[in-house]
Amino acid sequence: MVSSKNWESPLPMSMLRSLIKQHTADWRVFLSNNDERNWVPRVPLDIIIEIAERLNSIEDVLSLSLTSSRIYATLLPVLYASVDLRNSRMCKHTLEMLLSGRSDVTRYIRRLVVRPNHIDRRSQQPAKHIDEERVVKSIMKLATAGRLRRLTSFFWDGSEVPQDDSLWSTLRVCCPDLRSVGSNVGPKMINPDSELFCFDDLTGFTLTAKTLPDEWDTFLPPEPELPDQLWDMLIDRSPRLEQLRIDVSQRSRRVWDTRRVVQGRWPRLRDLELGDCSMAGNGSSRIFMETPFMRFLALHSNLEHLRLPSLSSFPKAIVLPPSSLPHLREFAGNVSHVKGLPNLPHITTLSLVHQPLSDKMVSLVCGTLKHMKSLTSLSIWLHLDAETDHYGIFRNLLDSCRGLTHLDLACSEAPWDIIEFISAFRGSRVQLTTLSLTRVERAANEPDLPKIVARLAAANSSLRKVTLRYSFTTWVFLDSIPYQRVGTFVVKGSSKEGSPLVMEKRTKSCRRSFYRRPLSFQLPRWI
Prior knowledge:
By secondary structure, the protein is α/β, with parallel strands linked by helices. The protein has 4 domains: 4-75, no CATH class; 80-178, no CATH class; 188-341; 348-507, Leucine-rich repeat, LRR (right-handed beta-alpha superhelix), CATH 3.80.10. Helices cover 29% and strands 18% of the residues. It is built from 16 helices and 18 strands. The protein starts with a strand and ends in an 11-residue tail after the last strand. This is F-box domain-containing protein. InterPro entries: LRR_dom_sf (IPR032675). It comes from Mycena maculata.
């Protein structure tokens, strides 16, 4: 989603000039024939494409595309390769636009995510309801008209599985390249005969179950096992599976039995996510599943990203041969899981957000972090009381992983003074570029977020992006934090006086706000 404020993402002029110097025989002659206002649109298109492929921000790609109609037409395949309709309004307006005849756009869509009635917990406004069946019919119209023939990935994230089950059969017939599918599941029972389980030769599959706050008292029918048809599709008919995600919200009373996953043999499996699922089943102990699951992990040596549940019915420890999981780079799980990983020095991304860690647990974690020499990204959830030495905890944490460039830190207990973190941050050797802080704040003392960001940026000159979130009450689950405010800020150089320039990014509606750049798989964030 393209975000904007009062700021605009600058065109990457330095990158343009550098590449043109490499590809243009006489740089000075080129500039002399093109004034400052129109020289960019005349850059050779192969250089423009090369620049776009190197950019990490969709805002930069969009800014580059808007320099001229020629460049915009060239970058259409990049802008529309991945479309994420993040709310009801975007579903309505974007699908109407695509149905109105924009075949020049639809033919570039390769990944499509549709989220009708999706609730963004950062927003204080209630979600606008939309008829999900109308959304389904719109997608089917696009598919039957041949406008989604290049689609390779589709995910439905509505409040319930599409009631019109023919959506899946339509996509299967009309999108010959579709190899990755998935759906969110609501309170209703899963239909074992659904067309969703009739795909062959999948490379990716996702099944998630979420529970909204007002569904705490909703009766959920017993559903200890996933349909046999699902496992038949994955185990018997999808030998080239690369990504598998079966995820249940922490707040859901539904617990899926995922024991059959150990029967799978997928030599190409790179990403495996198992949310709060069970590996024990009724009347059995998790102990009997530890050996089969460890054997399963050892056999899938191409795993790069692994996320494990935190339930008591899941194996608590990982014991693997030293040569196992040589390509693992991203991991999410419990502290006990981390200790058993065979290649700690090579892991770059770690997420410890399943359960809050006390001050004593943090000390144990820091001992493990010191062995993770390649770690650049850490997400961690702390539960510290008012008597805790917050400065000492933060300093120990930062000193244990000095190679970090991204830190996502949440503290769910008592309010604490932000100066304790700033002081620890200033005294550490960590050179963060992005920082996210989620904390409890006193209701009578609403913080000045821009001032806090300025002080953080002054404490560490490498900082470029800061996200601050706070609540007036504590929380139990990270996916249900009652945010009072969420602010995202960008640090853009320094003023004449030497103080950091801080600007807040504000999300605005935009007709191009559904553009998404294809990105590599990322660990789930808290919001």
